[in-house]
Write a structure and sequence with these properties.
Rossmann fold, 6-stranded parallel sheet, 4-stranded parallel sheet, 13 helices, Substrate-binding domain-containing protein, LacI/GalR-like_sensor, DNA-binding
């Protein structure tokens, strides 16, 4: 009999008892047919008697790339710290694995021939935001690993990864409801998947909470208004006018689909002597650095940029190692960051 009191038996220990090599023991553990049946049977008996536990090797995908081309629309590259956070987090994560990130700025006027030339020299491609048409078809045709960041492909031909915006909108509404708010609105600009998803999630929470509501009354879609300034969805131009028109008079809380819209709303409300959160509560989305600095500090939904970057790396490496490029859509969790702009009220 084998001495069962041996602490943490090793492959070498089992091999010595069985009178075989460590390689033979390893083959038995991994189900190889190269070991004679009687020898395998004896090794399995020893493993059972010693209580040896085989620890599976950590699966590591080989890094089949040394650099990645990261295509960014010019206006996204400079638009706000939200996109800057995504870019910097991805650069940091990839460069920590010795993978260079080449930022390729483009716009809807960039010629297909130039984009094609850039792609032809690529090992793998990341695309920030929903690609313009001049890039989309090239991505469909390439055999390179391609991944969309913070966007989805409506034809599901290109894999993508983004924060769970729909659930984030749901969480925002649920948080307001938990704090007694049922007379609510969402300020959005439904001209892209990410904002539509936040709006849809918000409305779903109202539905599931049995809160009677009219979608057309709840949703303030800045994209439907005439405006001369399209910066920040035109919020700075439109919100003071909408407040003056009394659009928020019977509302106790507002969800803004971005922190920047929330900042604009709070400033506009203050200029009309409407205090946040005493008179009306506000919750944002993105958790930009300024959100914790402004007064009152903004309650918002936070994206874990580090997790997004790590998941991006894992997904792109997997795509590069698996022929056929599995087409799927992945999401990263978000969470409510509770600060000072949402007030609890007694439900009516």
């Amino acid at each position: 009999m084998v001495n069962k009191k041996t602490k943490k038996p090793t492959l070498e220990y089992i091999a010595n008892i069985a009178g075989v090599s460590i390689t033979t023991v390893s083959r038995v553990i991994n189900g190889s047919s190269l070991v004679r049946e009687e020898v395998a049977k004896d090794i399995k008996r020893i493993i059972s008697e010693t209580g040896y536990v085989h620890k599976a090797s950590k699966i590591e995908l080989p890094l089949s790339m040394t650099e990645v081309d990261f295509f960014c629309l010019e206006h996204l590259y400079t638009e706000s710290s939200f996109y800057a956070e995504i870019i910097q987090s991805i650069k940091k994560e990839f460069e920590s694995k010795k993978i260079a990130i080449n930022i390729q700025l483009y716009n809807k006027h960039t010629t297909s021939s130039l984009l094609s030339s850039l792609i032809s020299n690529s090992q793998a491609i990341l695309v920030l935001g929903e690609p313009e048409d001049n890039l989309t078809q090239l991505l469909y045709d390439t055999r390179l690993p391609v991944l969309l960041i913070n966007a989805i492909d409506s034809q599901m031909k290109i894999p993508s990864i983004h924060p769970d915006y729909e659930l984030g909108g749901y969480m925002a509404a649920s948080y307001l409801i938990e704090n007694g708010h049922t007379k609510v609105k969402v300020i959005t600009s439904n001209d892209r998947h990410s904002t539509c998803q936040r709006t849809d999630g918000f409305l779903r929470a109202l539905l599931f909470s049995n809160i009677d509501h009219d979608k057309d009354d709840v949703v303030v879609d800045l994209n439907t208004y005439e405006k001369s300034d399209h910066t920040n969805f035109g919020a700075q131009e439109l919100l003071p006018k909408l407040i003056a028109q009394g659009l928020f008079e019977d509302v106790t809380a507002v969800f803004c689909v971005s922190d920047k819209i929330a900042y604009t709303l709070i400033n506009a409300l203050n200029s009309h002597n409407i205090r946040v959160p005493d008179d009306i509560s506000v919750i944002g989305f993105d958790n930009l650095t300024l959100s914790s600095i402004i007064q009152p500090a903004l309650t918002t939904l936070s994206v874990d940029y580090s997790s997004l970057a790590k998941a991006t790396l894992i997904k792109l490496v997997r795509l590069s190692n698996e022929p056929g490029n599995i087409r799927n859509r992945a999401t990263i969790p978000v969470e409510v960051i509770e600060r000072e702009t949402v007030k609890y009220i007694t439900p009516m």
